[in-house]
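sanity check this fold:
=====
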Amino acid sequence: MRDGMRRKGLMAAAALLSGVLTLSACSGGGDDEPAGDSRDGGSEQSDADRAAEDANTSTAVISITPDDAADGVGINDDVQVSVEGGTLDEVVLTAAESGTEVAGTISGDGASWAPDAQLDRGTKYELSVQASDAEGREAHETRTFTTVSPENSFTGYFTPEDGTTVGVGMPVSLNFDKPIENRAEIEAAVEINSTSGQEIVGHWFSDTRLDFRPEDYWAANSEVTVDLNFDGVEGAADVIGWQDRTFSFTVGRSQISTVDAESHQMEVVRDGQPLRTVPISAGSEETPTYNGIMVISEKLEETRMNGATVGFTDDDGEGEYDIPDVPHAMRLSTSGTFVHGNYWAADGVFGSSNTSHGCIGLNDAQGADDPDTDGAWFFEESLLGDVIVVVNSPDREIQPDNGLNGWNMSWADWQAGSAL
């Protein structure tokens, strides 16, 4: 009995020893250095190293937007740097190819940084940031990213220009350089406010043109502010907006001129009061002037007019007319309708007959240097956005999208063209 117990004891000891050896083998200890010693010594060394590392590590934590190697980054507010547990010491943003450094500003409390202006599209940038904590220990972060390319972004070109004074008929017209599929999103990203309090609604003439207007002409002497919030808005698949732009314009006095093609007279009315009646010559029976409401969209002191550019050619394909120095010309349509000075017709034409190819002619002098002519007077008294209404012409009414002439559309039809 005692021998059996002794044998069991020896077997248990052997099993225990076997278990110790097995554990030693799994721990990775070598023959020269017992595994237990290696594990204990390594733990003490790691803790010491960790403590030393912690003592030298900055508590400043830098955060950067966008992520490293990001593509298609917006050029307005998409690049931002901030820090917690410290302050920013230096932020350097550089265009990788040119090496040009981008100006930026660290906030007064040292907690954030942003570029001072828009970045360039389709450009790779390198960003380097240094911050430090209260103990002066430095933290560093770097990023590279590429901004949205022109091929994958759209631009909205706008009329009127910022800071201008315009007539009461001037719409806000946006022309996009790429077709817009997500019309509602883009229209909603345009905010327009007027001191007149008028309701302003958009109308899509095409997938690249969006105009805005109130129901009636703008109130005279009002201020209009337009915010284009296109940055980051998807206009179509893989086509993103980049503009974050505000512009404004002033609506001046009201001037509406009515051209009667039958009586050959133009009555100019300012702020509801007759200002002057001017004799004119409208389009001939073969080439009549459009009827309808037209808005002055361009002013040229002198310009060249060639019939070939608007489809008036002779049998040889040459322009039926080619006048290099037409004075005091103001565009009324995209298709080539102008009100302009005319020095080549006899004085007796104005007020008595219609002889033009569709334009409205006023008596004028060659060289555009005689301020006493009707053409010079009307040019000086007119603003971009002033309204000219043509009546009693044998031609049809001008199309609303031919120039800035959306006033030839009823308010209900105008509203129906809104994506909202």
Summary: The chain has three domains: 61-148, 153-252, 255-405. The longest helix spans residues 2-27.
